[in-house]
Amino acid sequence: MKAQTVDVKVSSGRILCCTVFRPGGKKLLAKGHVISEDDIRILESEGMDRVWVTELEDGEVGEDDAVSAVAGEMGCGCYEIHLAAGGRANLHATENCCVLVDDELLRQINCTSSLVIATAMNFSFALAGQRIATVKSAPFAVAKDQLEAITSILRERGPIIQARPVRNPTIGVLFTDPLSGERARQLFENITKQRLERFGLAPTLVLSAAPAALKAVADSDRIHYGARRTGRRSRPRHDAHRRGARTFFGAGRAGQSPDAGL
To answer: Quick one: three-class SS letters along 78-122?
Structure first.
């Protein structure tokens, strides 16, 4: 990439190296802007006769083309791409969705020196219109071989980001308390409802835990861990209560006796 000062009249198609300001200090054209014929007329009307521009060399790709190519390959699902100033491409969700991110592939792509990708958190919820990812390139240009390497990795290993639409979700809320499930429901139902409403959602099913069920789980917990701590069987092997506790906490590895380690 070559930087040089040229006459405004022959600057069409060139990339601005720096931001151009009006005499009063207001920004006229941003750095990285590709000069058009209309821009030439504007620059001449402002009394400017020369501008500092860059020219792409063989084997280079403009920043806007580079981020557009990567943005088109890096994701799938309900999103759309919007170009922004400064060699950026933003991905916006087109409907409410769950965002899935391949963190390992993201780190691998970000090890390159020419392009950087930022995404929303893995398994996060995004509203329609919300930005879920951004692609940013090095200033002005990207080496063509590096761009081809990135796009080939994306085609081979699949998308970095997936915007999975969430339509008519079913949401269940369980309120628990050591003494009374209804007490927990009275304390936290309003705040839970408010947090769900921020995403345009509402609970489909609401339950309160029964104290008897909590006591049964606690008793099973004490029996199971009491036997492990003492190394003795607290009840006979065929005791139904103890079998239930073992099933609740899971059996051993495949091929191992359920009693192993107790």
So the answer is: CEEEEEECCCEEEEEECCCEEEEECHHHHHHHHCCCCEEEEECCC
